[in-house]
Amino acid sequence: MTYRFNSDYTEGCHPAVLEKLVQTNMEQTDGYGLDPYCYEARKLIREAFACPNADVHFLVGGTQTNLTVICAALRPHQAVYGAVPSHINTHEAGAIEHVGHRVLPLPSEDGKLTAGQIRHEWKMYDTDPSREHWAQPKMVYISQPTEIGSMYSKKELQDLYQACKDCGLYLFVDGARLGYVLGAPDNDMTAADLAANCDVFYIGGTKCGLLFGEAVVILNDALKPDFRTIAKQCGSIMAKGRLLGVQFGAIMKDHLYSKICGKGTLQALKIRDALLAKGFKFVTESPTNQQFVIMTPAQFEKLSEEFALSHIAYLEDGNYSVRICTSWATKDEEVDRLIAMINEL
Amino acid sequence: MTYRFNSDYTEGCHPAVLEKLVQTNMEQTDGYGLDPYCYEARKLIREAFACPNADVHFLVGGTQTNLTVICAALRPHQAVYGAVPSHINTHEAGAIEHVGHRVLPLPSEDGKLTAGQIRHEWKMYDTDPSREHWAQPKMVYISQPTEIGSMYSKKELQDLYQACKDCGLYLFVDGARLGYVLGAPDNDMTAADLAANCDVFYIGGTKCGLLFGEAVVILNDALKPDFRTIAKQCGSIMAKGRLLGVQFGAIMKDHLYSKICGKGTLQALKIRDALLAKGFKFVTESPTNQQFVIMTPAQFEKLSEEFALSHIAYLEDGNYSVRICTSWATKDEEVDRLIAMINEL
Amino acid sequence: MTYRFNSDYTEGCHPAVLEKLVQTNMEQTDGYGLDPYCYEARKLIREAFACPNADVHFLVGGTQTNLTVICAALRPHQAVYGAVPSHINTHEAGAIEHVGHRVLPLPSEDGKLTAGQIRHEWKMYDTDPSREHWAQPKMVYISQPTEIGSMYSKKELQDLYQACKDCGLYLFVDGARLGYVLGAPDNDMTAADLAANCDVFYIGGTKCGLLFGEAVVILNDALKPDFRTIAKQCGSIMAKGRLLGVQFGAIMKDHLYSKICGKGTLQALKIRDALLAKGFKFVTESPTNQQFVIMTPAQFEKLSEEFALSHIAYLEDGNYSVRICTSWATKDEEVDRLIAMINEL
Amino acid sequence: MTYRFNSDYTEGCHPAVLEKLVQTNMEQTDGYGLDPYCYEARKLIREAFACPNADVHFLVGGTQTNLTVICAALRPHQAVYGAVPSHINTHEAGAIEHVGHRVLPLPSEDGKLTAGQIRHEWKMYDTDPSREHWAQPKMVYISQPTEIGSMYSKKELQDLYQACKDCGLYLFVDGARLGYVLGAPDNDMTAADLAANCDVFYIGGTKCGLLFGEAVVILNDALKPDFRTIAKQCGSIMAKGRLLGVQFGAIMKDHLYSKICGKGTLQALKIRDALLAKGFKFVTESPTNQQFVIMTPAQFEKLSEEFALSHIAYLEDGNYSVRICTSWATKDEEVDRLIAMINEL
What PANTHER family does the record tag this protein with (chains A, B, C, D) (predicted)? Predict the structure, then answer.
């Protein structure tokens, strides 16, 4: 009997979310997000992130949200900076190019971009004599936490946002796994801090307790007009939009979002500590729910007898980069069983 | 207390679907539609539509499905014929143009396209001396039932498909409300007939008993390669794809799909008959779950005291075109109440 | 020996233009339109059209100019109104859709759009309850003269522009054949009038005395930023941009542009008068260089023995719609020969 | 009086080309490349490159040609490999992304891609477990010569093409400066070799003796259908297409193309040798008409007193990377003057 630590979207949704879906199932509402559940969820989000003037829109999935936000924000010739391992630069099958925009990949060991890096890149562009012949950088895309588990401190985010503003760039924060930061013991960035330090971000639901759903929060007025129509055009609007309102309403209540994800992060940290104690090395330091650890093929195969882990890459020395991923749904006993097995390696 | 007859996506999902979602909620599966529930649902669909070699893909919503299928099928310069009132020509905010393709709207009183019309249009294009300077027609898009409630007979579909084949055009059938045809008393087209007479179609779930979901069925081998990647690129693939497999698995079992939608159609026909008996005129004849009836403003206002109906258009004579829409979820007593009120008008 | 009256791009360029190309051929200049010839031509254009603050850009051809201007002006979900026979709706192979935008075709007997029509269409959109689900009209595209030879009066243009401003729409004037209006005896619209009554227009060179080239004149500040980069991205910028500056410099000097095209228009009117005198009917009234006349097949064949004319369409009564097109290059003796032959029909 | 060595598009066209343009100026022909001059030029090209079954199309400029060819060849999710310094990855303002495709930049010191590199990259993609979520590589884009002056040997090209075929990739060769290779003393690749070892290439005219123009040569039948319509849709087709036929007809006659460009290459090599003799270092070895040399700021400023050179980049040690560019039009006495000045540095 295999237990999955290979991703954070292996189960359905948190029981509190499911309960509310069941409870409201036969109610009748208007469509397209114009129902009372969506309005209520928007209110809860504006409160939780201390952004009373934000526009909040509910979309279905991460790639969809990235392409819709970028499509709505940029003019045709404009491009978006992203770290080399960022989602838009890797696993979106060219979605950003499909809506016409270049992704400008920037090298990053830990998956994060820095203020200095942005200032440098912008200056390179801005002082190039053939500047007019380059795709024009206009947005910085980051993930919090990143695709490889690292997270931005409040200071790093503030610096980055300042750099963006100085260079005339929008800052867009992909929060597909935001809960695992908000609930992380080492996190020093509040929900309000995030909303105060970017132009647009989204609160990931799919990997954080919902069946599906991402809540786009638009802070910058310049990015607000006609977002709903562009989302409709991108195929990103649900007819039964209330399903997203119901779910986000349930998860945003009483800090459920950060509570359940925080528990998920703690599970990952327990596993990390066990690995560290056994002398394992990591691809990067991760204080969140995804751990990228280096294993020998034999170690990977041994653990795979009982657990599904993600084999991410072959390393040059013959070892594997392996992702171990927990979530809000991860069971204590399975964490214990995995740790026991690690200790026996 | 208002009851809604204004659309067929006002409730959640059929109890059998919800039950299976609840039952499977905490199971762990692989993502992106590679789970056992999706495989099982694909099998059921291939059986129900008698198309053992079809590729079946699960997407989320209708506009999304239309743009993904069209995007995957056409080369850049190719265009798609659709009736003037068709969804791609009206309520998709320019989604087809967004993926680069022209919609060629053809006039249609009843929402349907005919074989003769297609042959004529194609010939006009094909014999034009400046043919090379026109967007090239390559696909015919129809909806079964149409956006205004009419439906194709088996013969009409066969003729249309023959015309498409003769002209080198793909035939794509939007089945967002397919259940309301399959369960309609006047329908003479089986599920197998549909699959035998087009290149690609989809089985609508959102309006037919699911929370959400559309199952794309690709018959023509030329349209199969890399569909999953293009869907990913369009943001149309769910991480928790199994939610679609679970739902379609539940609804395709024991003909539940056509049974519950057939009931929905019958409700609409009861209302239609009451309206006809009172002498009301209709915008077009509809044997399915949407009725487009002509009312005076006073009649519309009177019914609106107790029911939500859709005011679709102002007619030139001052009257309204009004949509009355039933669904699998419509309650008998509300139909009776509406009919009673109609009789009192 | 056949003489061509089938289009206005059958010859190369006016001798004065050619002379200047020859004269400057071995000079060295900077590329991409940053040379003295382009600066000089921009100055001449700003003077001739009395628009000292306009941005002027030189592109190569008409379809290219249409797609570049529309691409630069619109956000993804925005659409452009054009008359059914307009170039963007017919002979551009879906170029506007290729850059993501819907063309909203409006019926027009004479190829022109009216202020009333725009106000009506906008109101239909603006008051539609499902407005958010439609492509959003944001621009009106007209051609002066139109594709079928008609032209806007000053009053018609003023009214149309006022309607556009009232509805929040940009007005874009395609002047591919502008010279044939500016030099037309019935024209009451000056160059300055044009520039004062739209947001962006272009001065057609290809059909008006140049080898090739269209000069985009942007009046509205909102449409100016980054136009060069978007044009580069669309492949519309010539490396040897000075070829365009040299040509436009030559043709804008001493009113050569309107003089030579005016002559072309007069040639067409002479032919028109001969046809009228013989009792021929026209598809629409044209005071410019293109005449669309209705002929029997026999008449068409007879004239085709000596002249190339454009057979545009088969009419329902079996007759042909035939285009007779003159240009700055049309020879007097050939016009006389054609008229003589018409008189003998 | 400054003489320009800063690019190869500073003058107009070769006298033989100009003469033919002048000679044919007032002739009447059909438009859009369907005239006798285009047919004749196509014939000459098929002969010169020994590809009797190739389709030949005439477009205007380089960026335009790249975007049109790539747009016509790829399905939406497909991507194109290019060297980091390649034109599509740098100076096209995001043109490839604008038509929806990702450029996959591969590192390259000398501007070239190797067979081994392509095989390795393809394998990485092909064996990735999440392959379906990546943009799909389908084309390799190279420039011959490269943007930094290097050139492929016959063997290198053959190996690369074999690798492409083995991996199911198209090979597209940008020949914007092809003449400077065909006429280079170190070149071992004939025109026929090129046509035998790729799927599509183009013969650059703009930088090689024409006013403007690029001739696309399509070898692979899969890339032929509807190219004209897609080019029209991209705004890449000239109304007066014969201008391209006339020019290519003149330049392809009697090997004029490689003769005049060969002379240009020799001029560059003389300058290179003078620089080498003085101990200058180069960014990369170039046997063609562009030399990228490393200079101190003082050296650059000194030469700039009499010559326009291109300052390409600031190097980390404070020196400059400087491009010195010759062409078919470069004058012997100016080369001598530049060499004299180099010798005095």
Answer: L-THREONINE ALDOLASE-RELATED (PTHR48097), LOW SPECIFICITY L-THREONINE ALDOLASE (PTHR48097:SF5)
CB contact under 8 A, D61 and C237: yes
ipTM at complex level: 0.97
Percent of chain B residues topping a pLDDT of 90:
97
Do B232 and A29 lie within an 8 Å CB cutoff?
Answer: no
> Is A67's Cβ below 8 Å from some Cβ in C?
no
User: How much is the pLDDT for B129?
Assistant: 87
Touching subunits for chain D (3+ Cβ pairs under 8 A): A, B, C
**Is C313 part of the contact surface with chain A (CB cutoff 8 Å)?**
no
pLDDT of A225 > 90? The answer is yes
Contact status of D281 with chain B (Cβ, < 8 Å): no
Answer yes or no: do B136 and D229 touch at CB < 8 A.
yes
Question: Domains of chain A by range and CATH?
Answer: 3-8+257-344 (3.90.1150.10), 15-255 (3.40.640.10)
Interface test with B, best of A3, A98, A247, A306 (most B CBs within 10 A): A98
Locate the chain A residue with the closest alpha carbon to C229. Answer: A132
A136: nearest CA partner in chain D: D93
Kindly report the three-state secondary structure assignment for every residue of chain C. CCEECCCCCCCCCCHHHHHHHHHHCCCCCCCCCCCHHHHHHHHHHHHHCCCCCCEEEEECCHHHHHHHHHHHHCCCCEEEEEECCCHHHCCCCCHHHHCCCCEEEECCCCCCCCHHHHHHHHHHHHCCCCHHHCCEEEEEEEECCCCCCCCCCHHHHHHHHHHHHHHCCEEEEEECCHHHHHCCCCCCCCHHHHHHCCCEEEEECCCCCCCCCEEEEECCHHHCCCHHHHHHHCCCCCCCCHHHHHHHHHHHHHHHHHHHHHHHHHHHHHHHHHHHHCCCCECCCCCCCEEEEEECHHHHHHHHCCEECEEEEECCCCCEEEEEECCCCCCHHHHHHHHHHHHHC
Nearest-neighbour CA in chain B from D204: distance (Å): 25
DSSP-assigned beta bridge partners for residue A23: none
**In chain B, what residues touch C102 (CB-CB under 8 Å)?**
94, 97, 103
∠A217-A221-A222 over CA atoms, to 5°? 110
* DSSP code at position B253: G
Average of pLDDT values for A118-139? 95
User: Mean pLDDT by 10-residue block, N- to C-terminus, for chain B (345 residues)?
Assistant: 94 98 98 98 98 98 98 98 97 97 97 98 94 97 98 98 98 98 97 98 98 98 98 98 98 97 98 98 96 97 97 91 98 98 95
Per-residue pLDDT of C237-295, as tens digits, reads 999 999 999 999 999 999 999 999 999 999 999 999 999 999 999 999 999 999 999 99
| Chain B residues near residue C129 by CB distance under 8 angstroms | 311
pTM for this predicted structure? 0.97
Strand partners, C300: none
Q: Average pLDDT of A286-302?
A: 97
Q: Does B120 touch chain C (CB under 8 A)?
A: no
Per residue in A248-275, pLDDT tens? 999 999 999 999 999 999 999 999 999 9
CB-CB neighbors (< 8 A) of D211 in chain C: 21, 240, 243
Among the partner-chain residues D75, D132, D232, the one whose CB lies closest to the CB of B132 is: D232
Order of all β-strands in the sheet with B136-143: B55-59, B214-218, B200-204, B170-175, B136-143, B78-83, B103-106
Distance from CA of A23 to the nearest CA of B (A): 10
Q: How far is D312 from chain A (nearest CA, A)?
A: 8
Inter-chain contact A232–B3, Cβ cutoff 8 Å?
A: no
D306 touches chain A (CB under 8 A): no
- pLDDT value at D9 more than 80: yes
The pLDDT of residue B135:
97
